[in-house]
Amino acid sequence: EKGGYDHFMLKEIHEEPDAVKKTIMEVSDIKKVVEKFPKFNRICFVACGTSYHASMIGKYLFEGIVGIPTDVILASEFEFSAGALDEKTLVIFISQSGETADTLKALRTANEKAETLAIVNVLGSTATREADHVLYTRAGPEIGVAATKTYVSQLTCIYLLAICMGQNEKLLEEIHKIPEYMKNALEKEDQIKDIAKKYKDAKDFFFIGRGFSYPTAMEGALKLKEITYIHGEGYAAGELKHGPLALIEDNVPVVAVVPPGESHDRTLGNVQEVKARGASVIALGSCNDAVLRSESNDIIEFEDEIRDLWSPLPYVVPLQLLSYYMSVERGIDPDKPKNLAKCVTVE
Ligand code: M6R
C-alpha cells in the first residue's frame, strides 16, 4: 500500500503534482460557490499548523489579487482576536481532516456572526457539515502524520478561490503549469538526500524567506521539528536583524528561500549577512541566479522560471524532502513522529 516507497510520507510527496492537478479540476465547483457569495469587505483565515501556513499565503493572495483586507488567525487564538465579525466577513477554515478541535470550535463561534467556508480534504468530516459553504481539496487520503500533499492541495484551492473572486483569467491559465514545476522539483531528490546526510546532526536550523516565501520558510521549519526532532525556526528574512541574527554562528544551517521576484535582492542581502557570520547556507532559487549560488554552501536550483507568486507550491517540495531524508538518516519513522497525532481532536 506504500506503492513501493519506504514510507507513506515519501509516497505522498511524490503524489503532489497529481493532487494539485486534481484540485485544479475543482475550479467549476469553486466558481459555483463564489457566485453565491454576497459582497464581502473582510476575509479571515482560521487554521492550525500546516493549514495555518497555507492560510498565510492566502492573505497575500487575497489582498494582492482580490483587494480585500485579510487576516490570518490561529484557530486556538480565534476567540481572543476575532472581535469584529459581521455578515460582510467571510471566515475561511482550512483543515485537512475537518476534525481539528480548535478549528471546529472557531467555526462554531464564527457561524453565529459571519459567513463561513471550509476547505477540507476529508469528505463528510465535521467541518463540511457545519460550515455555510464547503470546498474540497483532492489530495486523496493522507496517512503520514506530516501534512504534505494536502498542504499543496490546500494552496491550490486557495489560489483558485482568490483567482475566481478576483476574476483573473491570466492567473487561471498560469496555474496549469504548476504540476509540471512540481514534478521537476521532485527530480532534485538525490541531491537533497546528500544535503540531508550532511546536516543530519545539526542542533538548530533557521529557515528564512520574504513575502510569499515567508510561509514557505515557516512550513519548512515545522516539517523539520515534526519529523526530525531538530530545533528549526522559520523567520521572515527581514526580521533576522531584530534578534535571531545573534544566534547565527559558524556552521549553523540557514535554509534560504530566494525565488526570483520583487523580494529577491533583499533576501539575498540577508543571505550575505548570515554568510558573513559563518552560517552554512542551503539556498533554494533559480538556476540563473549566479550570485545566490556563489553565496551558498548548497543550492537547490529550479530550471523553470517560476515567479514569486507561484513559488510556494514548487518551493515547498525540496523542504519536505529534506526533512524526510533527515528523519530517515536519524533513524526516525517519519510517518509516526512521537507525541503527535494525524488528527488533533482535543483543544
Ligand atoms: O487537519 P488539519 O489541517 O486541521 O490539521 C492541522 C494541523 O494539526 C496539521 O497541519 C499539523 O500541523 C501537521 N501534522 C503538520 O505536518
Automatic annotation (TrEMBL):
One GO cellular component term: cytoplasm
Residue ranges annotated for the SIS domain, each copy included: 33-171, 195-337
GO biological process: carbohydrate metabolic process; fructose 6-phosphate metabolic process; protein N-linked glycosylation; UDP-N-acetylglucosamine metabolic process
Function statement: Catalyzes the first step in hexosamine metabolism, converting fructose-6P into glucosamine-6P using glutamine as a nitrogen source.
Coiled-coil regions, chain positions: none
Enzyme Commission identifier(s): 2.6.1.16
Entry keyword set: Aminotransferase, Cytoplasm, Glutamine amidotransferase, Repeat, Transferase
Source taxon at top rank: Archaea
Subcellular location: Cytoplasm
Keyword Repeat: yes
Subunit-structure text: Homodimer.
Active-site residue list: 342 (for fru-6p isomerization activity)
Enzyme class at the top of the EC tree: transferase
Key word Isomerase present: no
Secretion signal, residue range per the UniProt entry: none
GO molecular function: carbohydrate derivative binding; glutamine-fructose-6-phosphate transaminase (isomerizing) activity
Protein's name according to its UniProt entry: Glutamine--fructose-6-phosphate aminotransferase [isomerizing]
